[in-house]
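Example for tutorial group B:
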C-alpha cells in the first residue's frame, strides 16, 4: 500500500478478499482511526504493527480466518470498538485471553466482541476492571473456563452481556443485579449451577434473558416479574423446581418465547397465563405440572407454538383453545388428557404439527384438516381412539361405539327439547301475566330466535350501565349484556333517536339482516321497537357478542372501553385470514343473496372479531338492498341518509354522484386491505396534497414493499420474531416467494381501490385470489423447536 499516510478511515469489509495482512500496516497508516477488514477470507495472524496505531477508534477483524494469539492492546487508549469474532484466534488454552487485561487502562472502550473463536483459559478477572463506559461484551462460543467474577457488577453501563456456549462453572454472581442498564443477558449452554439470584429482578431494562442448558437449581425468582420489558425468557433444560410464579406469566411484554421446559416444575399452570396475549411460543414441556389446562390459555391469541408434552395434565383440552387460530404447532403428548379430541382442531388451517400421543383420548378421530396429514399428526398410545385415515392404523369404530354415541345423542336431543319447551312455557306464562302492563310494542326481525322485552334488555345490560358500554357511534350506543334466561352474552345497540337518521338506519338494518345468514356476518338475534317505562320511544338491535372487539382496535392498538391497556397486535397470517373472511362476506352480499346488498360503510371499526379471531362484517345501518332489475348492481336513488360511507373509505364517485354500487364496497375493501398491511389509516395526516394511501402503496411496488408494511410486523422481525409472522421474519423477509405473495396482496388492494369503478375487481375474484395466496403462505414448512432468535445469531456488540 502506498500514499496512505493521511488516511483516517480504511474499510474494505464485506468483500471476498483473500490472503494475509502486511506486517507494516501501522507504518503505512499512522493516522488511521477506523480500520475494518471484517467479513472477508483473510488468513494468517493479525500484524503486531496495527496495535501501535495511537488514534484507532474502531478496529474490526470479524468473520475471517485469522489465527494465533492477539497482541497487546495497551497502546490503543482511544479504542471504542474491538470486533474479533468469527475467526480461529487462540489455542484453547490458558493465556489466550491475556490481551484483554491490556485494555484495563482504556477509558473509552464501548464494545468488545471475541465471540466464535478458539479462546481458552480462565475467565479473566481483569474484565471487571474495564472502563465503566463498556456497553457490550460478547464472549460466546469459545472454550472459556472458570467462574463469572463477582465484580462483573462494576460494569454498570453494560447493556449486552453474552457469555453463552462456553465451559463456565459456578453460580451467577449476585452483583449481576447492579447492571441495571442490561438489555440482553445470554449465558446458556454452560455448566452454571446454584440458584438464579433474586437480584436479577433489579434488571428492569432487561428484554432477553437466556439461561437454558445449565445446572441451575431452586425456584424461579419472583423478582423476574419486575422485568416488565422482557420479550424473551428461556430457563429450559435446568434443574429448577417449585411452581411457575404467576408473576412470570403476568409479563404481558413477552412476545417471542417463554420456555421453562425440561425442569422439575410442579403445580398447575397459573391462570395468569391469560396475560400473554402477545406471546408467540410457550413451552412448559417435560416438567411435573398437573391439574387442568386453564381455559385462560385461550386468551394467548398470538400463540404459534404451544408445547405441553411430558407433564401430568388431566381431563380434556379446553374448548377455549379454539381462539388460537394462528397455531402452527401443538404438542400435548405424554399427559393424562382424556375425553374426545376437540373438533375445533380440524378448523385450524395453519396447524402443521399436532402431537396428542400417549394420553387417554377416546372416540372418533376426524379425517379432515390436519388429521388427514400423516406427517403432521401423532395419536399413538390412545387405545380408545378409532376411525381416522387408514394410515393412522386405528381400529374401526364398531357398532357398539356407534350405538353408545347414538344413545348419547338421543338423550342430548331429548334433554335439549325438554329444556327449550320448559323455558318457552315459563316465558309464555310471564308474557300473559304482564300482558296488562304498559310495555313496549315489540317488533322482531323475522325468524329471530329470541323474543326479548325492554325489561330483559334492561336487566341484561345492568340498566344500560356505563360499565357495560363497549362502543358508540353516530346512531347510538352499544352495550355488552348477559341474558338472565340462558346466560348468553349479547351486544345491544340502542339507537339514539335524537338523531333523525337513526330510525331510518334501524329500518334499513332490520330489512337487510332479516334473511341473510353467513358465518362472516354479525348475527342479529332480534330487534325491538317500542316504548320504555318513561313513555319514550326506543329502538334496539341485539347481536351476538364479538369478544375480540373490532379490527380497528387490533390494527391501531386502540384500547377498547373497559379493556386493560395492553398492546394488541395481529400477526401477518391473522391479517390475511381476516381479509379473506371479509372478502367472503362481501361476495355473499353481492352475489349470493336473493337481492344483492351493498354495505356502504365498510371500515375497520365495522369488522368485528369473535373468540376465534374470525372476521365478521357489522353495522348495516347504511346498507342498500338492490331491486332485481338492477342487473349492474347499482342504483340512481338518492340516499336519504346523505353521503354514504366514511371519509377515506367511501369511493370517490359517492362524493360527486348519488349512484350506489357494489363497486363502492369493493373500493372500501381495497382501502381496508391496504390499511391492514401498512398499518396506516387512509386519513393519515401524511396523505394530503395529492398523496393518498393508494398512491403511497403504488409508488412502493414492487421493489420497496418492505418499506411500507406495518412497522409492528417489522419490529417482530428485528426482535427475532416468531414463526407467527412466517412471511415477515428471519430469512423469509428476503424470500422471493413470500415477497411475491405480499406484493400480490398489495396489488389486490390497489386494483380494488382504483379510482374508476370499472377497473375494480369483483369480490368473487378477490376471494379466489386471496385464498390462493393464503394457501401458498401456509404451505407446510419446517417447524423449528426451541429458540431460534437473536441469540442464535453471532453477536457483534453494538
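The residue assignment follows.
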Amino acid at each position: 500500500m502506498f500514499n496512505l499516510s493521511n488516511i483516517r478511515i480504511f474499510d474494505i469489509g464485506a468483500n471476498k478478499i483473500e490472503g494475509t495482512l502486511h506486517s507494516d500496516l501501522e507504518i503505512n497508516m499512522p493516522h488511521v482511526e477506523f480500520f475494518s477488514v471484517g467479513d472477508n477470507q483473510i488468513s494468517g495472524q493479525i500484524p503486531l504493527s496495527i496495535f501501535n496505531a495511537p488514534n484507532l477508534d474502531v478496529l474490526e477483524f470479524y468473520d475471517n480466518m485469522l489465527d494465533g494469539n492477539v497482541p497487546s492492546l495497551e497502546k490503543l487508549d482511544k479504542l471504542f470498538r474491538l470486533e474479533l469474532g468469527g475467526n480461529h484466534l487462540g489455542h484453547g488454552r490458558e493465556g489466550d485471553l491475556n490481551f484483554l487485561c491490556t485494555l484495563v487502562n482504556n477509558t473509552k472502550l464501548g464494545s468488545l466482541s471475541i465471540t466464535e473463536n478458539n479462546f481458552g483459559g480462565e475467565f479473566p478477572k481483569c474484565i471487571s476492571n474495564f472502563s465503566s463506559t463498556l456497553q457490550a461484551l460478547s464472549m460466546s462460543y469459545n472454550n472459556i473456563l472458570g467462574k463469572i467474577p463477582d465484580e462483573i457488577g462494576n460494569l454498570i453501563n453494560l447493556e449486552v452481556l453474552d457469555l453463552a456456549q462456553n465451559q463456565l462453572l459456578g453460580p451467577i454472581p449476585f452483583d449481576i443485579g447492579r447492571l441495571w442498564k442490561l438489555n440482553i443477558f445470554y449465558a446458556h449452554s454452560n455448566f452454571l449451577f446454584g440458584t438464579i439470584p433474586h437480584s436479577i429482578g433489579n434488571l428492569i431494562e432487561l428484554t432477553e434473558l437466556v439461561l437454558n442448558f445449565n445446572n441451575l437449581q431452586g425456584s424461579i425468582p419472583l423478582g423476574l416479574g419486575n422485568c416488565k420489558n422482557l420479550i424473551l425468557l428461556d430457563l429450559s433444560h435446568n434443574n429448577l423446581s417449585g411452581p411457575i410464579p404467576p408473576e412470570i406469566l403476568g409479563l404481558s411484554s413477552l412476545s417471542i418465547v417463554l420456555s421453562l421446559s425440561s425442569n422439575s416444575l410442579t403445580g398447575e399452570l397459573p391462570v395468569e397465563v391469560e396475560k400473554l396475549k402477545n406471546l408467540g411460543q410457550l413451552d412448559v414441556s417435560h416438567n411435573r405440572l398437573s391439574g387442568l389446562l386453564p381455559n385462560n390459555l385461550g386468551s394467548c391469541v398470538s400463540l404459534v407454538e404451544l408445547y405441553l408434552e411430558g407433564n401430568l395434565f388431566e381431563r380434556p383440552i379446553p374448548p377455549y383453545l379454539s381462539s388460537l387460530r394462528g397455531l402452527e404447532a401443538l404438542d400435548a403428548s405424554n399427559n393424562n388428557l382424556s375425553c374426545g379430541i376437540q373438533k375445533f382442531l380440524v378448523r385450524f388451517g395453519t396447524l402443521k404439527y399436532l402431537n396428542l400421543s400417549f394420553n387417554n383420548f377416546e372416540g372418533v378421530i376426524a379425517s379432515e384438516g390436519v388429521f388427514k396429514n400423516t406427517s403432521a399428526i401423532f395419536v399413538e398410545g390412545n387405545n380408545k381412539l378409532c376411525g381416522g385415515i387408514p394410515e393412522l392404523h386405528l381400529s374401526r369404530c364398531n357398532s357398539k361405539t356407534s350405538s353408545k354415541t347414538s344413545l348419547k345423542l338421543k338423550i342430548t336431543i331429548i334433554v335439549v327439547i325438554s329444556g327449550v319447551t320448559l323455558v318457552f312455557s315459563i316465558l309464555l306464562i310471564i308474557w300473559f301475566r304482564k300482558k296488562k302492563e304498559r310495555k313496549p310494542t315489540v317488533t322482531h326481525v323475522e325468524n329471530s330466535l329470541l323474543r326479548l322485552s325492554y325489561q330483559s334488555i334492561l336487566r341484561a345490560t345492568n340498566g344500560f350501565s356505563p360499565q357495560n358500554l363497549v362502543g358508540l357511534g353516530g346512531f347510538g350506543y352499544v352495550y355488552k349484556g348477559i341474558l338472565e334466561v340462558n346466560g348468553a352474552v349479547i351486544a345491544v345497540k340502542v339507537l339514539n333517536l335524537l338523531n333523525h337518521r337513526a330510525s331510518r338506519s334501524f329500518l334499513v338494518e332490520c330489512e337487510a339482516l332479516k334473511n341473510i345468514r353467513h358465518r362472516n356476518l354479525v348475527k342479529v338475534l332480534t330487534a325491538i321497537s317500542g316504548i320504555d317505562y318513561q313513555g319514550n320511544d326506543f329502538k334496539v338491535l341485539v347481536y351476538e357478542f364479538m369478544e375480540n372487539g373490532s379490527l380497528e382496535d387490533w390494527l391501531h392498538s386502540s384500547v377498547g372501553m373497559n379493556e386493560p391497556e395492553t398492546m394488541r397486535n395481529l400477526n401477518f397470517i391473522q391479517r390475511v385470514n381476516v381479509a379473506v373472511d371479509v372478502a367472503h362476506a362481501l361476495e355473499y352480499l353481492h352475489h349470493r343473496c336473493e337481492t344483492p346488498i351493498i354495505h356502504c360503510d365498510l371500515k375497520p371499526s365495522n369488522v368485528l372479531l369473535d373468540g376465534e379471531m374470525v372476521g365478521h362484517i357489522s353495522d348495516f345501518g347504511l346498507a342498500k338492498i338492490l331491486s332485481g332489475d338492477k342487473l349492474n348492481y347499482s342504483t340512481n336513488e338518492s340516499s336519504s341518509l346523505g353521503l354514504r360511507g366514511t371519509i377515506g373509505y367511501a369511493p370517490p364517485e359517492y362524493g360527486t354522484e348519488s349512484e350506489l354500487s357494489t363497486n363502492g364496497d369493493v373500493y372500501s375493501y381495497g382501502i381496508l386491505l391496504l390499511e391492514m398491511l401498512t398499518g396506516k389509516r387512509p386519513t393519515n395526516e401524511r396523505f394530503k396534497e395529492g398523496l393518498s394511501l393508494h398512491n403511497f402503496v403504488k409508488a412502493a411496488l414492487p421493489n420497496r414493499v418492505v418499506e411500507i408494511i406495518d412497522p409492528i410486523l417489522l419490529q417482530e422481525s428485528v426482535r427475532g420474531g416468531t414463526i407467527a409472522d412466517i412471511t415477515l421474519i428471519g430469512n423469509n423477509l428476503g424470500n422471493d416467494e413470500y415477497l411475491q405473495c405480499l406484493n400480490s396482496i398489495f396489488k389486490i388492494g390497489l386494483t380494488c381501490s382504483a379510482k374508476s369503478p370499472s377497473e375494480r375487481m369483483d369480490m368473487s375474484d378477490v376471494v379466489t385470489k386471496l385464498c390462493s395466496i393464503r394457501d401458498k403462505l401456509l404451505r407446510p414448512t419446517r417447524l423449528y423447536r426451541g429458540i431460534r432468535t437473536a441469540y442464535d445469531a453471532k453477536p457483534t456488540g453494538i
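Residues 1-177 form a domain with the Leucine-rich repeat, LRR (right-handed beta-alpha superhelix) fold (CATH 3.80.10.10). Compare this with the pattern of hydrophobic and polar residues in the output above.
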